Amino acid sequence: MDAARKQALISDLQDRIDKLAGGAMKHRAALPFGVPEIDQRLPGGGIAYGALHEIAGGGNDAVQGAISVLFAAAIAARAPGRILWCMTRSDLFAPGLAQVGLCPNRVIYCETGDETAAHDTTEEALRHGSLAVVVAELARLPMTVSRRLQLAAEKTGTMGLIVRRWRRQSEATDYGQPTASMTRWRVSALPSEPLPVAGIGRARWLVELIRARAAESFDVEVGAPDTRGHMAAVRHETAYDGRQWRER
């Protein structure tokens, strides 16, 4: 059994224990991704609870938000307990979240009229203390707002995921402004996994850690999340030499 599979099984077992204990997560410092190339580079071996994390898409996804939303959903899917998803647009596709492991029955959907209301709702949700993860789709995250959200997350141990989305590509420059978030991620689409037969293989992503406290930036190619929210390390590509498929 490879290291990624072992880590995924350990994470799944811990999730089951947490559920039996009522979903409490304050004793857990981080949620592993199950991908050694990511977990080994993060303090605590995963994405931290009790902290705020920003996620944005690369290229056109900075506006569309499809991959960044799925990345956040896959993280939330592996965290035991209820999820609150706060948004200002009514374009969230629940079946798409289910495909990466986030069951719609676990999610409380909250649509606000504007971003100011979204900031307030996200802060109150993080302060509540009974939620596993709070996800908020925001275009802008001022430093003052991010500090309030980070402090609220630290107080309760709840994980806050901010999916940064913009109406137009030109607004994406706001993502370069400083915030109080613990980590900042960017996720982009890559060509899917090659198959030895005609067809489309597992989707692949480029996951970039742009900024993190007590950690260095890095990027890694991964297989997109499965139906339990687990990503996978990218396998070696193969090539056909006229007789059989071989690793390059």
State the CATH class: Alpha Beta
Radius of gyration: 18 Å
Mean pLDDT: 86
Low-confidence stretches: 21-26, 243-247
Structural class: alpha/beta
Helix proportion range: 25-40%
Describe what you observe in this structure.
With 248 residues, the protein is an alpha/beta fold. The chain has a single domain, classed as 3-Layer(aba) Sandwich (Rossmann fold). It contains 7 helices and 13 strands. Strand 6, helix 7 and strand 7 form a beta-alpha-beta unit. Helix 6 runs parallel beside helix 7. The chain starts with a helix and ends with a strand.
Task: List the main descriptive attributes of the protein structure presented here.
two-stranded antiparallel ribbon, 248 residues, nine-stranded mixed sheet, single chain, alpha/beta, globular, Rossmann fold
Q: What are the SSEs and their pairings?
A:
Blueprint: H1 3-20, E1 30-31, H2 36-39, E2 47-48, E3 52-57, H3 61-64, H4 66-77, E4 83-87, H5 94-99, E5 107-111, H6 115-128, E6 133-138, H7 143-156, E7 159-164, E8 183-190, E9 204-212, E10 218-223, E11 232-233, E12 238-240, E13 245-247
Parallel strand pairs: 3-7, 3-8, 4-5, 4-6, 6-7
Antiparallel strand pairs: 1-2, 8-9, 9-10, 10-11, 12-13
Helix pairs in contact: 6-7
